[in-house]
Amino acid sequence: MENKTKKIRIGRINYTNVWPIFYYFPMEQFQEEAEQLLQVPTSLNKALAEGKIDMGPISSFAYGQYFKDCVLFPDLSVSAFGRVNSILLFHRRPLEEIVHGTIALPTTSASSVNLLKIIISKYYGGRPTYFYASPSLDDMMKESDAALLIGDDAIRASWSRSGYQVTDLGQLWNHWTGKSMTFAVWAIREQALRERPEVVRRIYEAFCWSKEQGMARPEEMIRDAQSSIGGSELYWKQYFQQLTYDFGPAQWEGLRLYYQYGWELGLLEEPVSLKIWHDNSVIQVNE
Q1: Does this entry carry the keyword Lyase (predicted)?
Q2: 42: Cβ contacts below 8 Å, ≥ 6 apart
Q3: How many domains in the chain?
Q4: Owning domain of residue 33
């Protein structure tokens, strides 16, 4: 039986890369049933793990940590089959020359940080020294050979004439593996599924509708991105088009490889199962 007094708490990442899914979401239809909380990915990951939010986009790595308590929505993600344009490594020399050097990492991401560690270890055989820093490119590069930036911080830095070489991690992952990379997944705690199944269904359907609208009518969203962050209309049109917001077999395959590597390197404590929500039931993807 549904607990009709408890609101579903929806987390929202404070980055433009999720806009096509959130931009047209009809929150007014759920005023009595849901509320939104705006946070950076690492805060959102922690909040979902602690039960402070019930659903929302979290770092795909965070699902790997907390998968026993969560289920993933199909058709919703932030993924890329190649360039992602907002997960960028800035470095002074070619990447193969710095894989044993010092690399500054942002405190705002889990998926991208561990993707970098996987690529450097698995494909370059590198053993760099990592340290965490606030996402300011100039400050990060004062004491490092390279710096990783994500989201809007990466976008702004890519527009600056920094003189650094820039490597897109989505493109590099695809080059090495031939697969898609999923940076954020839409997760929901199993407890919320049990308590409010019909509200969860309607929220999911509203997110899918919002995604369709965001991709079909991006003009207003693009103008807002230009106003809040900068850049040209062409840049944002291409940015949103190059990202994939689906979450189906192609994304599952790339994500399973990411989790396998994460487990092999000791970044994850155990092998990860993909549990996918389907019509208020849960299916487990093994193949």
Answers
A1: yes
A2: 59, 107, 108, 109, 110
A3: 2
A4: 8-80+181-285
